[in-house]
Amino acid sequence: MTVPRTRGDCALGPRPCPWVRCRYHLGLSRRRGHESCALDVADSGPQEFETIAWHMRTSTGSVWEALWKAKSKLRRALRGEQEDPWARP
């Protein structure tokens, strides 16, 4: 088996995913009968905060904070603003 280089290479690959070094692997949070790849979870469509938190083994507040930061960063990028290196994360 060769290591996949793109999502297309691994989308139909074996599950649970054997590529534990992949950045999208949910190895630490993998539970029996559930996805082992964050991209599989994303492909399954919109998720509740509780579901995302469950997969990431974190709180819904942490998921909300990550979403808020990502949206803020996207808004700044769409406005063409430079990211402030001294801003609080």
Report on this model:
By secondary structure, the chain is mostly helical. It has one domain (12-79). It has helices spanning 7-10, 38-43, 49-56, 60-79. Helix 3 packs across helix 4 (60-79). The model has no long low-confidence stretch (mean pLDDT 82).
Radius of gyration: 16 Å
Largest sheet: none
Average pLDDT, to the nearest integer? 82
Beta fraction: under 5%
Count of individual domains: 1
List low-pLDDT spans: none
| Number of strand segments | 0
- What proportion of the residues is helical, as a percent range? 40-55%
Instruction: Count the DSSP helices.
Output: 4
Q: Report the order of strands and helices.
A: HHHH
Assign an overall shape.
Answer: globular
Instruction: Specify the structural class.
Output: mainly alpha
State the end-to-end CA separation. Answer: 40 Å
How would you concisely characterize the structure shown here?
This protein is an all-alpha fold and about 90 residues long.
Q: What attributes does this structure have?
A:
89 residues, mainly alpha, 4 helices, globular
Question: Topology, please?
Answer:
Blueprint: H1 7-10, H2 38-43, H3 49-56, H4 60-79
